[in-house]
Amino acid sequence: MKKEEKREIILVTSNENKFKEMNSIAQNFNVSLIWFNIPKVEIQADSLEEIVKFSAIIAYNQINRPLIVEDSGLFIEALNGFPGPYSNYVRRKIGMEGIIRLLEGEKNRKAYFSTVLAYVDSTQLKLFEGRVYGSISTEIRGTKGFGYDPIFIPDGVNLTFGEMSTEEKNKYSHRAIAFRKFLEYLATYTV
Ligand SMILES: O=c1[nH]c(=O)c2ncn([C@@H]3O[C@H](COP(=O)(O)OP(=O)(O)OP(=O)(O)O)[C@@H](O)[C@H]3O)c2[nH]1
Ligand SMILES: [Mg+2]
Q: DSSP H helical segments within 27-47, as ranges?
């Protein structure tokens, strides 16, 4: 039987860790993920959906090939969902230490990570969400991953994402959930 050709999908991101995490999943789906490390236009808005739609359309106009982009955020319950879509800015300004400080003395440490992934080709723009519920640790733990990984503990385990390998994180992560949804869709879809 002739081996089916791998489908090529471009991922536009400046973040190599996102590529690594997604590439490790893509390999199980006969998809070849191509990393485009080009500046992604990110508007400021109160929802990941709005931000990622803009990024996707602008990237498609530049590249003109089927592509995905994603935007992620950490939503902390006791802070009414802050930093959410502003996670990148907040991470750069106050870091993980700043988040731990904001939660000092707070009993409710619940939080979730969300990824909204946009797929765009010549006919459509489609969004896929992934979410993982968990809690914010009281200290920084682990050196793996990126972003807020060392302070986020997904429900059901006692490790932060920062203490997990890429493969372990992919069992739980918001990004892996959104990306698998997309890959399952792609398997049933021909342009
Ligand atoms: O602990 C984390 N685990 C994750 O899995 C994760 N994914 C994103 N983030 C952080 O949340 C902000 C979103 O920014 P973001 O989605 O715009 O990403 P980015 O700017 O790094 O890349 P990109 O926009 O070029 O794709 C940034 O501060 C990221 O560090 C994460 N933190
Ligand atoms: Mg970004």
A: none
